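Reopening closed ticket. The problem is back. First fold of the pair:
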Amino acid sequence: MNENERGGPSRRALIGWGGAGLALGAAAAGGGVALSHDGPGPAAEGSGGAVEFHGPHQAGIATPVQDRLHFAAFDVKTEDRAEFVQLLKDWTAAARLMTAGKPVGEGAYGGLAEAPPDDTGEALGLSPSRLTLTVGFGPSLFERFGLADRRPAALADLPKFPGDNLDKSRTGGDLCVQACADDPQVAVHAIRNLARVGFGKVAVRWSQLGFGKTSSTTPDAQTPRNLMGFKDGTRNIAGTETARLDRHVWVSASDGDAKSAWMTGGSYLVARRIRMNIETWDRASLQEQEDVFGRDKGEGAPVGKAKEHDAPFLKAMKPDAHVRLAHPDSNNGITILRRGYSFTDGTDGLGRLDAGLFFLAYQRDVREGFIPLQRRLAAHDALNEYIQHVGSAVFAVPPGVRDSHDWWGRTLFSKEA
């Protein structure tokens, strides 16, 4: 292990008695977050164990989908490239610990009483809960740090789609962190501690809690239901389908040009906050609901079929049925990996639930994935009567952290890479 991982100066030794307000990782000489051990091996779905942090791809994409989400987009506040790179290293070190079920740095207690502890402590005694942390870089980040010539063409700005009503306070971001876990407290703890490590260098722009996964990346698993009571995306890419992942999700060395070479092994993420008009939907007849989706509500089978995973006969559905319009056969084979969650955030002040779907989609190229697919859906989908896109962001998700010496974003920021 390198000095940032074992044997480096402790935070408390560096901050002394007078610097209790310093953020973790901000000490001089590039001191990083202390690290004790790498995380254990991958956990089976539902086991509550640890998911392997290292690998060619970031965990949290093709990984079996956990039950809970805390997603946060950040604005970068520092103008110092070296300081931002050090933050990415510190975040990586903290993520190694948290995904292994360990506290950040020297922990939540037992240190100097006069200094803030390194870890906030609310995950003490909890299992890793299959926590995964996935980092992405937004288009606006490439306006900083001399990165303009390294922005991949595939990281395209999303156009305004028909029906969009985007809230600027829930849109965009220089970078993002997606925390998924089976325990909501574990996911919230992870985002909270990364925000704390980044204090003064980054600030949370917006965040979203999610519950009730609405898609699966596990073969033959039952597809979860959304808040409309329907199964959607039953043919989602499974984490074991390496050929489909290579074709539709992971960036290849053959993609693009020198600008995107650093993205090999990564992916592109579109995040959309989709408000559902729950009250209107709940007054629609069962037949109307099934016609809108193109599935029966009980089994989830396509129109005219018996089982959820039966191949759909698209022409049996209404021309504006959601399944018919979103199916790859209707879109020249466009396929995305969905990883969305339901949300409910109180009311809108008019007695209606602020609830819906926090849509997360990974793809190899946004220009060939979400953009053409959403253009078709926004123009023709019967579901549009009951939903509205109110938040949006797009991110380049770099390749995984390969070993204990690697760090998030190394391929982008390191000349050696």
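Second fold of the pair, where the issue appears:
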Amino acid sequence: MSTDVTAKSPAPAPPGKSGGAAAGGGLLQLMLDGLRRNMRQYGMLIALGLIVALFAVWTDGVLLEPRNVSNLVLQNSYVLILAIGMMMVIIAGHIDLSVGSLTAFVGAFAAVLTVQHDVAWPVAVALCLVVGAIAGAIQGFFIAYLGIPSFIVTLAGMLVFRGFTEILLEGQTLGPFPDSLQKIGNGFLPETGPETNYHNITLLLGLVLIVFVVLQEVRDRKRQQEFSLDVLPRNIFLLKLVSIVSAALVVTLLLASYKGAPIILLILGVLIVGYGYVMRNAVFGRHIYAIGGNLPAAKLSGVKDKKVTFLVFLNMGALAALAGLAIAARLNAASPKAGLNYELEAIASAFIGGASMSGGVGTVLGAIIGGLVLGVLNNGMNLLSVGSDWQQVIKGLALLAAVGFDVWNKRKVGS
């Protein structure tokens, strides 16, 4: 006797209940997957926001006062400039230990030209940039064409440039600089337009920046979609845009309510936009990623690795010269002891900002974020009267945590 068994399909879920929950769960999972894939890119940005929020609370809001935000930009300008060049060096698979000594040497050279020999400051600035580029090119020649490891070459450069600094200054501090040169490190944009409670030019520049960033983000997303690349889910992308616009607007209002945007901030903005474009879109930037990510494959693809390495170090020398001018102008004097540990701060900024020890990974924006993390830590701990000994401990732990997070993230993605 046979039994006829009929399989019954489950009844459909009532609308708005199980089906809605499944859809919501799918959307949540999609957002989590998007965040997980982009954790390297946004992890330090989230960390920077948390650090700013914590120190704002611990300092009773002093951290975010307009005067302090302006000082934060001025005090950390040299680190951010160096971090851009150092990020490129690390992406190419190298390291540069000489940038601190080179900034001191360029500051000393500028002081000798303007203070002792009355050279016009624009001429002095141009000569200093050329000297920095030549110093970087010499090191790049030894590294790229003679095959000497960058660690050895730049370690030698650190000693040589420090010695030349003391020779130029004869062991003494030299200053003051001309007023026009001082404005590179301490100056602000002039005030124009109608009487308001804010700096009008700063407000205008902030709005232009916000529009530019939003258009750039939308353009990049469309381009990635055209090439069938992974992009952030729409909701996360909109959240990202809102966060960027909010942060830029807050900083703009804070700067505009004090003296306006510092001149060095405009220089930094030009560097960030220019180098960001080079690393994202230019052939030279792609070649830097290629030789750092897989040198044999890059050679087989026709990349001139020696030329690229040479130009990377030449560029680092020029940026070190610009940083040296900025810090000397801010201090209004050149000192034999200037630039101490600057190379370590630049390297730390790059690694905190997402650079990889193996090369081939990193962004200009990441370097800026890493530099800001260190800058906010320094400024916040100074406001809380934390001793310099504990500041070193905390910054060292922050660097270790950033690199450890990078290693963990690689293993997580790989698994």
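Update: turned out to be a display glitch only; the data is intact. The longest helix spans residues 200-226. The chain has 16 helices and no strands. Please close again.
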